Amino acid sequence: MAALTDEQQMLKDMAGDWSRQNAPVTAYRSLFDRANGPGFDPNLYAEMGQMGWTGIIVPEEFGGSDFGYQSMGLVVEELGRTLAASPLISSALAAASALRLAGTQEQKARWLPGIADGSLIGTLAVDEGAQHAPEKTALRADRSGDRWILEGMKKPVQDGMAAQLAVVAARTAGTPGDDDGLTLFLVDTGAAGLERQAIDQIDARRPAIYTFNRVEVGPEAVLGEVDGGADLLDAILDRVRVGLSAEMLGAATQAFETTIDYLRTRTQFGKLIGSFQGLQHRAADMLGELMLARSAVEAGFEAIDSDDPELPKLASLAKALAGETARRVTNEMIQMHGGIGMTHEHDAGLYLKRVRVAEQCYGNSAYHRERWGSLSGF
Amino acid sequence: MTDLESFRSDTRAWLEANCPPEMREPIRSDADMCWGGRNWTFQSDAQRLWLERMVQRGWTTPHWPKDYGGGGLSPGEAKVLKEEMARIGARQPLYSFGISMLGPALLKFGSEEQKKRFLPEIARGEIRWCQGYSEPGAGSDLAGLQTKAEDKGDHWLVNGQKIWTSGADQADWCFCLVRTDTSHKQRGISFLLIDMKSTGVEVRPIVLISGSTHFSEVFFTDVKVPKENLVGEINRGWTVAKRLLQFERDSISESRGEIPSLAPLARKHVGLDEKGRVADPDLRTRLIRNGMRASAYGLTLARVATEKNSSNEPPAVSVIKNLWSSIAQERAELLTELLGADGLGWSGEGYDKASLDATRAWLHSRAFSIYGGTYEIQNNVTAKRVLNLPEQ
Hints:
The structure holds two protein chains of two kinds.
Chain A: H1 6-22, H2 25-30, H3 42-50, H4 69-81, H5 88-102, H6 105-117, E1 122-125, E2 140-144, E3 147-157, E4 165-171, E5 182-188, E6 194-198, E7 208-217, E8 222-223, H7 229-265, E9 267-268, E10 271-272, H8 277-305, H9 311-337, H10 348-360, H11 365-375
Parallel strand pairs in A: 1-4
Antiparallel strand pairs in A: 2-3, 3-7, 4-5, 5-8, 6-7, 9-10
Chain B: H1 3-18, H2 45-57, H3 75-87, H4 97-109, H5 112-123, E1 129-132, E2 148-151, E3 155-166, E4 173-179, E5 189-195, E6 201-205, E7 215-226, E8 230-231, H6 237-255, H7 263-270, H8 281-310, H9 317-338, H10 353-365, H11 375-386
Parallel strand pairs in B: 1-4
Antiparallel strand pairs in B: 2-3, 3-7, 4-5, 5-8, 6-7
């Protein structure tokens, strides 16, 4: 990265120290013991709010610090190292980005201060099926005077059980499969007709299925242009994709370092296993992949902060490379640990599961390779 | 205006006035790269003129001291010169192992006499150097080298064989690793400068799979070398060599900038499907994967360059070399694959020039993971020095 400023370095150090002390992997592990929990520890999220991390990309007039996406990336990556579970990306990155990019003064004033101090959780409700495909949005929003009636389903909605605000992608024109004809709505999740059901995901983070049974919202709920929401949605998604890439990069980096430590200490055949060339070379190759992924992630954040028109390509590059690398490194983490790596007691499986979910979220590596390829003339 | 700003404007004006237009064209073939030396034939007047003008200012070696034929520029000024040359697309006036490898080693380990004698002729492009390192039995295990230099009182007597000596058939001098003590492996190696015109030096070019004769075998039979041609202390040549290999690895990875996209060529040669995508889905998938890695590689070079200035972390040169060689090799192979049967031509009228070049480049690319330390050696280095894994 272009050298960090002193403030950014402090923020990174602080996030690293805090996550190691207050949100270590054991804290994440405890989520697996709670069958009906919210998928994160609300007390830890409140602490993140107190430290200002929930307001990093929120403008100062709405209670944030407007410290930039690169700074947000530093925090997300550090939290990713210990798999610290929180709705930070859904709320302080995704929902905050939506409002920042397209919110009216009134919409910002209503939602951003709560997001910024962590008292209110927002999320994105985009996907409706197993494959990420925003253009296939079928959830309808039909006009009823100057109001709108939403009808349909969203699944999975990340952090959907805890969220009070959902930024919902709805079809207001055309048919599923059309790129155009989408509109974004700011929906209070307490609205009449909105049913929420938790689903039990491998990473214990518990996203939700949202069912909209004639949910009525007013004109103040429309975010951005009616029927012209596709570009806005892309812009929001690209910010979240880079954020998730940073989380995966942090998790993969830690998984790699933990594995290297094991190679330095585990003895078999009377030798440290890290002395075996078969393992050394796989470790060296992984380091190369991690370097590529880091470069892509950092370039993604720089592109967001500098309004670089190359952002869609860079976001897909980051998401695909971080996703592939995180998968490879967590697979190797288990393999190089051997049997112990297969146990629930060991951290390896937790890294594998969380990374697998993040990789799938908002377009998996294959989706982003295809997108990058199309944007790059292939 | 700061000193650096006025240096920039002076430099810009001088380059505009002195860099011939032909020398602002991109490099298209080996002949476009001027290597200098007594055997060099200038490709054009422009090539000769450009070298002479740059030599006059000491700008073939901008950061070397003026006493040794350099430009005496500060690091900041040298960077400005580089940027201003890049701005107008000016070619490097001189390619030289003397500049990239021997020079830095002499500046660090050479005697005052050696610096005065050898550096100015390197800077002026008058003497072309080759590197006598690898031997038939000492490739990856370079320290196993056997070429022997015996102390005969008033001279060294050298016997042995070098291989993979790049440009040896064109070079005037050779910087050479020789064994001066057989009882220690690394600590029995010395660094010797040998005139290729000496009696007993024989050069035999090697024909590679790409048809290139860039590399040679060099045979030394009872070659007499003056005592003063030893660089550094006797039996301490490995220190110099290691340092030099680092320069070599630096220059290998740094000189390879962007890896250009294959998209335009893929569209042209493979054709498009009804959605405007490259028509062969399997090939397209692999092109995309390679293109993404190439793109991230470019970003990595830029990132490592800025981090070098701001942190003390090991620059992981070995990791970069392996990333580059694997991505560039894969690209070269994909290029011939997308050319189909046109990617199989060796020479002649039946193929266009670009396709012939691509095929030769693919064959040449197999060397990327061998020269400058093989892929496997680089991974050994990474495991040991960067990851601190235990000794094998």
